[in-house]
Specification:
heterodimer, A: about 550 residues, 21 helices, B: about 210 residues, mainly alpha, three-stranded antiparallel beta sheet, elongated
Chain lengths: ~550, ~210
C-alpha cells in the first residue's frame, strides 16, 4: 500500500515538475524557430494571401478583404506557383479516385444509418429481409461510415496534402491507388459479409479476418507515397500536419492487425482489446487525419500562420500518449481489471491537455477573422468541425467520469456523442477539405456554389436535431434505468419521440449528402456553367485581380 | 539539415520512433498485460460449457446483431439497480471463460441478457417473442424476425417445431414453424444462466501452512 501511494505521489510530482520545465522552455524559446516551421506551408511572399478554390470570385474578393489588402509589390514568384501546380497535379488521379469512392460510401452509409434509425421506432418495418434486420444494417452503417467514407476521405485528403506540405511532387501514387482499390474491395466484401450474417461479433471489428487482411495491406500501401515523398522533400521543417498524417498512417495498420488476429483473443481480454481498438481507431486514425487537414486548411485559407507552433508540438505528443490509453472507459462497471479502467479514466481527463492545445491553436488563428467564414465555403465547414472537436473531446472526457458514465453508459447519449466526434468533427472537416481540393483535382470550379450553402445548412440543421434530441433522450433513458422503481420498459418508451427526432435529423443529413454527392459528380464530369473555369485557379494574375478588386 | 537545428525539431525519425514507442506502451498496458493476467483464469464450477446447439445459437445471436441492443454484463448494485431488475449479480472475468467472441455489449435498448435463461426459461415464450415481440411486451421496439420462421397452411411435418402463439397472431389453418436457427438461438438464450456463485474458493476456509 505504501509502495502504491509512493508511486502515485512520485508520478504526480514528476508530472508537475515536467509541466513547469515545459512551460519554462516554451517561454524561453527552447523549442526553436517555431515561426519558420509554422510558415513552411506558404510560398515566399504568400503570407497575407487567401486561398480557397471553392469560393466564387466575389467570395474570394470578400475573403481577401476580410484578411487585409494584398501586398502587390512583392508577388509570389512564378516558379513557386508552377511548382505548387505540379504538386497538385501529381495527386489528382489518386485523390480523385479515393474521394469518389468515399462519396459513394457516404451516400450508402447514410441510407444504412437512416434505415437503422427508422427501425428503432418502426420495429415491424422491412423485417422480412435478413440483411435488413436492425442488428445487421446498423453495423453495416457503422462500417460503411468508418472504413468506407471516413477512412477513404481521410486517405484522399492526406495524400493530397503530402506534396503541398513537402513542396514536391507525389512519389509512388500507384501504391496508394492499389491501396485505395483494395480498401474499397474490403469495405464491399465486409458489408456483404455482415449482411449475410458472417460477422466477427465485435463492435468496430465486425469484418471477418480474411477481409481484414485486405484492409491491413491496403492501409500499409496508402502510406507508401508518404514515405517515398518524404525522401524527396524540399522543405526544411516538417509542418504539424505531416506529423499527424505520418503517425496516423503508421498506427492504423498495426491497430487493425493486432485487434483482428484470429484465435488470439479470448473472453474478457477480448473486450479490452475491442475497446483499445475502438477508441484508438478514433484517436490514432480519424482524429490525426482530420487535425492534419484543419491544421493545413485553416491557416492556408486565411493566409496566416497558425497561432503557436509550440502548442501544436504539445498537442501532438500529448494526444498520442493519452488518447492511446483511454479505451478502458468503455468498460466502466464491467468485469475487467479495475486498474485498467482507472488508467483509462485518468487518461481521458488528461486528454483535456491536447484538446486545449489544439483548440487554442486553431481557434486563436481564426479569432478576429470570423468574417472570413462568410466568404470561404472551406473554412465554414472546417471551423465548425474544429469547434465540434473541442466540444466532443470535452464531452468525452466528462463521460469517462464514473458518475457521468453511470448515467450515460448503455444509452443513446453515447450514440449521440459518437456522432458529435465522427460527424460533427471529422466529417465536417472532410467536407471542407473536399470543397477546397476538388477544384484543384479537376481543374474546374464547383459548378453550383449555392449547393455548397444548401449542403451546409441541411447537414448543420439535421445534425443539430439529431444530436440535441438524442443527447436529451439518452440522458433521460440513463436516469430511468438507474431508478429501481421505474420499470425497464419505461426507459424504452420514453425514447420514442427522441428516436423519431433522430430520424428527422438523419433524413436532413442524408438529403445534404445527396446534394453534396450530386455536386461532387457534377464537378467530376466538369458539368455546369463554365464561369471563370480553370483560369482563375491556374493564373496567379487573375487570382490577384479578384483580390485587388475587393481591396479597391 | 542545418547545424542550427533545434533539439525539438520534428524530423521523420522522431515522429516514427515516438509514435511507435507510444503505441507499444499503450498496447502493452491495454492488451498484453490483461492477456497475461487473464490467460489462466479457470471457469467457475457452476458454469457449464456451451453445447454444440447453443454454440450454433450463439452464432445466430452474433449474425443478427443482438449485441447492439442487449448487454451481457449487469452492473454492481453499488453502481446501478441491475440486480433489482432480476438481471443478476455483477459478473467476474471467469464468467466469460467460454465466451469468444465476447458479447458484453455497450447498449441497453433492450434489457441485459446475462441471466435471461434464469429469468425467462420458457422456450415457447422466447420463440413467440422472437416471432412478434409486441405480442408479449407491449411497447417493445425489438424487431420481429419473420425470416426465422415459416408460415404455411396445414400441419407441422415430423421433426418440425410448430410454435404456440397468441390467437391474434395466427390465421385459422395456418401453422408457424420455427426454423432450426431460431431453435438454436432460443437454446442459447435459455442457457444464459449465471446465477451460480462464481468464486467458491472464497467460501472455503483458507488453508494455512503448518
Amino acid at each position: 500500500m505504501d509502495f502504491t501511494v509512493g508511486v502515485l505521489l512520485g508520478t504526480f510530482l514528476l508530472s508537475i515538475v515536467a509541466l513547469f520545465i515545459f512551460i519554462w522552455s516554451m517561454s524561453t524559446g527552447l523549442f526553436g524557430d517555431g515561426t519558420a516551421a509554422a510558415t513552411e506551408i506558404f510560398a515566399p511572399n504568400e503570407l497575407g494571401q487567401i486561398e480557397d478554390p471553392a469560393a466564387t470570385a466575389a467570395q474570394k474578393g470578400g475573403l481577401q478583404q476580410a484578411m487585409g489588402p494584398l501586398n502587390l509589390a512583392q508577388p509570389i514568384a512564378q516558379a513557386d506557383e508552377d511548382s505548387r501546380n505540379r504538386a497538385d497535379q501529381s495527386t489528382s488521379l489518386v485523390v480523385g479516385v479515393c474521394l469518389t469512392l468515399a462519396v459513394v460510401w457516404l451516400v450508402l452509409a447514410s441510407f444504412a444509418g437512416l434505415i437503422s434509425s427508422i427501425k428503432l421506432h418502426a420495429p415491424d418495418w422491412w423485417v422480412q429481409y435478413e440483411w435488413l434486420t436492425f442488428g445487421r444494417i446498423r453495423p453495416i452503417h457503422l462500417n460503411l461510415v468508418a472504413y468506407g467514407w471516413c477512412s477513404l476521405a481521410g486517405i484522399g485528403v492526406a495524400i493530397w496534402l503530402i506534396p503541398r506540405l513537402l513542396k514536391t511532387e507525389l512519389v509512388g501514387a500507384k501504391y496508394a491507388l492499389v491501396g485505395g482499390a483494395l480498401w474499397s474491395i474490403g469495405v464491399t466484401a465486409g458489408s456483404v459479409a455482415i449482411g449475410m450474417g458472417y460477422s466477427d461479433g465485435l463492435e468496430w471489428l465486425e469484418y471477418p479476418w480474411q477481409i481484414d487482411i485486405l484492409l491491413v495491406v491496403a492501409g500499409a500501401l496508402v502510406g507508401f507515397p508518404l514515405w517515398l515523398t518524404l525522401l524527396q522533400r524540399k522543405v526544411k521543417h516538417l509542418y504539424v500536419s505531416v506529423w499527424y498524417i505520418a503517425a496516423g498512417l503508421l498506427w492504423f495498420p498495426i491497430l487493425f492487425l493486432i485487434a483482428n488476429v484470429p484465435g488470439l483473443h479470448f473472453g474478457v481480454q477480448q473486450a479490452t482489446v475491442n475497446w483499445w481498438f475502438g477508441h484508438n481507431v478514433l484517436g490514432l486514425w480519424f482524429t490525426p487525419l482530420a487535425l492534419a487537414a484543419s491544421y493545413y486548411f485553416i491557416p492556408k485559407v486565411l493566409g496566416k500562420p497558425i497561432h503557436s507552433y509550440n502548442l501544436s508540438l504539445l498537442g501532438f505528443w500529448s494526444l498520442a500518449f493519452f488518447y492511446s490509453q483511454v479505451g478502458g472507459h468503455h468498460l466502466i462497471g464491467g468485469p475487467v481489471p479495475s486498474w485498467l479502467v482507472t488508467i483509462s479514466i485518468v487518461q481521458s481527463m488528461m486528454m483535456l491537455i491536447p484538446v486545449f492545445a489544439v483548440a487554442v491553436n486553431q481557434h486563436m488563428t481564426v479569432l478576429g477573422n470570423f468574417r472570413a467564414l462568410i466568404y470561404s465555403p472551406t473554412l465554414r465547414f472546417i471551423v465548425l468541425g474544429a469547434m465540434m472537436y473541442t466540444a466532443a473531446s470535452i464531452q468525452g472526457s466528462l463521460e469517462a467520469l464514473r458518475s457521468v458514465n453511470t448515467v450515460t453508459h448503455f444509452t443513446h447519449y453515447t450514440v449521440a456523442h459518437a456522432h458529435l466526434g465522427l460527424y460533427g468533427f471529422f466529417t465536417m472537416v472532410m467536407f471542407g477539405s473536399i470543397y477546397f481540393i476538388m477544384p484543384r483535382v479537376m481543374n474546374w470550379e464547383w459548378p453550383f456554389p449555392r449547393l455548397i450553402s444548401l449542403h451546409f445548412w441541411l447537414v448543420l440543421v439535421g445534425f443539430a436535431i439529431y444530436f440535441i434530441g438524442l443527447s436529451i433522450g439518452g440522458w433521460f433513458q440513463g436516469l430511468a434505468m438507474l431508478d429501481e422503481k421505474t420499470p425497464f420498459m419505461a426507459s424504452v418508451m420514453l425514447m420514442a419521440p427522441y428516436l423519431k427526432a433522430r430520424s428527422i435529423g438523419g433524413s436532413l443529413m442524408t438529403l445534404g449528402h445527396l446534394v453534396f454527392a450530386t455536386h461532387f459528380f457534377a464537378i467530376g464530369w466538369k458539368f455546369g456553367p463554365k464561369r471563370l473555369g480553370a483560369a482563375l485557379l491556374e493564373s496567379p494574375v487573375l487570382g490577384r485581380i479578384a483580390g485587388k478588386g475587393a481591396v479597391a | 539539415m542545418s547545424a542550427t537545428k533545434s533539439f525539438w525539431e520534428m524530423d521523420e525519425l522522431r515522429i516514427v520512433s515516438g509514435a511507435m514507442v507510444i503505441l507499444s506502451a499503450a498496447t502493452a498496458l491495454m492488451v498484453a498485460v490483461p492477456y497475461v493476467l487473464l490467460k489462466n483464469i479457470e471457469p467457475p464450477a457452476g458454469l457449464k460449457p456451451y453445447t454444440s446447439v447453443q454454440l450454433t445459437g450463439r452464432q445466430v445471436y452474433i449474425a443478427n446483431g443482438c449485441v447492439y441492443c442487449h448487454s451481457q454484463q449487469p452492473r454492481d448494485i453499488k453502481q446501478a439497480p441491475d440486480a433489482l431488475r432480476g438481471w443478476g449479480r455483477a459478473p467476474v472475468a471467469a464468467d466469460y471463460a467460454y465466451d469468444t467472441p465476447h458479447l458484453l455489449g455497450t447498449m441497453r435498448t433492450g434489457p441485459d441478457l446475462f441471466n435471461i435463461g434464469a429469468r425467462q426459461p420458457s422456450k415457447d415464450w422466447h420463440l413467440g417473442h422472437l416471432y412478434q415481440p409486441r405480442a408479449y411486451t407491449p411497447g417493445s421496439i425489438m424487431p420481429s424476425y419473420p425470416f426465422m420462421f415459416e408460415v404455411r397452411k396445414g400441419q407441422a411435418r415430423p421433426g418440425e417445431t410448430a410454435i404456440t402463439l397468441p390467437s391474434a397472431l395466427t390465421k385459422p389453418g395456418e401453422v408457424v414453424i420455427a426454423k432450426p436457427e431460431v431453435l438454436a438461438l432460443v437454446d442459447y438464450l435459455i442457457g444464459l444462466d449465471h446465477t451460480y456463485t462464481p468464486l467458491p474458493a472464497l467460501a472455503a476456509p483458507v488453508k494455512v501452512k503448518p
